[in-house]
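PROTEIN DESIGN WORKSHEET
SECTION A - STRUCTURE
LENGTH: 422
TOKENS:
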């Protein structure tokens, strides 16, 4: 793709940009801007920046969505919630639809297979969370979802899919109903043109935006996304289409917005541990110099902030749960810390990935038994990165001393860090 620099761009850097590989170290590059328009879904809902955080189970929780929106993402939906679990009042599922930390507009995503149950779940979401947008998941490839005829299995049952969309759109009007699909169940299904035909029918049923993940259910998250199919859907329907799949760099965003006819793109796995990617993309789209990836100290500072936010958020969730109303404050804090740890561990692992000493840091982080311990280990890695790096080198050489001779960063922890004396 075309790019320009205020000084000469090396051939290697230009190839990295064009191929979609990491642009770390390419700060100062200015890309050709791409014209785009705000996405207007009606009912006063306008998404002004067309780069979304894609919903990811176990990843796009409230705190991570908040960080990505602060970094520059234009829109995000919640992790998906099961329709039946919401109607039964299962607190863990109800917590997933909480939008108290979300910038607006914000969406809630639900999944299920029965049209009436989905309709009632959508009404529940509207009364409890008041989202700007209600999104229906017809793309999840997980067997535990498709076995119940939800997620991407709906691609093979268009009548059921249409009934779900029509029922929800009528129930929650004028709030916009949107849908996420895949390009097909398998390659033969994709080649049949199901994505285009189903998208048209869903729009006729009331969907005001379609997000298309460019892989089949059979592919899950392997192989390449088919952007030809995404482009075909965008050309076939009258509502905004959001493309999802293989968006890893600002260059990828610019290329897809310029060539595929989509109104926006959604970024999933490339944002894990990298919320700053949305700021880099925003700069590129504005024709500003591309900010570099943050250094190790900045990543660790972001991770520590993430941990603090998560602990505070989980404490608020536990405190408002009626089943914990009479519990002692110390008990509530312990529950919140445990919940936070479950959310945080993968994020913190991603923050340190690829940094010097990361393998040893991840080994120590994996032993944390509370969110506070996780904070302490990450802070110690930030304060003594060379100790972790040396420890990693010693382990590679087979010269690590037994754990009894290893120092720990505080008396309450048994995390394996650096040999005594380093």
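SECTION B - SEQUENCE
RESIDUE ASSIGNMENT:
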């Amino acid at each position: 793709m075309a790019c320009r620099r205020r000084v000469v761009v090396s051939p290697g850097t230009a190839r990295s940009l064009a191929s979609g590989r990491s642009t770390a170290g390419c700060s100062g590059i200015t890309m050709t801007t791409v014209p785009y328009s705000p996405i207007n879904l009606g009912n006063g809902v306008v998404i002004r920046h067309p780069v979304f955080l894609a919903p990811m189970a176990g990843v796009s929780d409230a705190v991570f969505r908040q960080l990505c929106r602060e970094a520059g993402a234009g829109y995000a939906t919640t992790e998906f919630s099961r329709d039946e679990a919401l109607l039964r009042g299962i607190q863990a599922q109800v917590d997933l639809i909480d939008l108290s930390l979300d910038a607006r507009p914000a969406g809630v995503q639900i999944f299920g297979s029965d049209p009436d149950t989905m309709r009632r779940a959508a009404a529940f979401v509207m009364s409890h969370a008041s989202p700007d947008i209600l999104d229906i998941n017809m793309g999840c490839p997980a067997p535990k979802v498709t076995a119940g005829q939800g997620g991407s299995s709906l691609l093979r049952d268009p009548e059921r899919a249409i009934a779900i969309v029509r029922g929800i759109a009528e129930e929650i009007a004028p709030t916009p109903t949107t849908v996420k699909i895949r390009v097909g169940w398998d390659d033969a299904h994709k080649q049949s043109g199901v994505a285009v035909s189903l998208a048209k029918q869903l729009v006729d049923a009331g969907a005001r935006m379609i997000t298309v993940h460019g892989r089949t259910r059979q592919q899950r998250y392997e192989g390449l996304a088919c952007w030809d199919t995404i482009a075909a859907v965008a050309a076939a329907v009258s509502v905004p289409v959001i493309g999802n799949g293989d968006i890893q760099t600002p260059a990828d965003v610019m290329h897809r917005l310029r060539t595929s006819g989509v109104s926006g793109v959604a970024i999933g796995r490339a944002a894990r541990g990298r919320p700053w990617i949305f700021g880099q993309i925003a700069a590129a789209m504005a024709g500003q110099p591309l900010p570099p990836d943050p250094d190790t100290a900045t990543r660790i500072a972001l991770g520590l902030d993430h941990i603090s936010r998560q602990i505070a958020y989980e404490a608020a969730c536990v405190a408002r749960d009626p089943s914990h109303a009479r519990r002692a404050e110390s008990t509530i804090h312990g529950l919140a810390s445990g919940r936070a740890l479950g959310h945080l561990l993968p994020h913190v692992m991603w923050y340190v990935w690829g940094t010097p000493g990361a393998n040893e840091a991840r080994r120590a982080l994996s032993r944390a038994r509370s969110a506070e311990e996780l904070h302490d280990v990450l802070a110690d890695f930030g304060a003594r990165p060379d100790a972790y790096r040396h420890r990693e080198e010693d382990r590679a050489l087979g010269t690590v001393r037994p754990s009894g001779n290893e120092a720990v960063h505080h008396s309450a922890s048994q995390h394996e860090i650096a040999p005594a004396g380093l």
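SECTION C - NOTES
Residues 1-25, 402-422 have pLDDT under 50 and may be disordered.
The radius of gyration is 23 Å.
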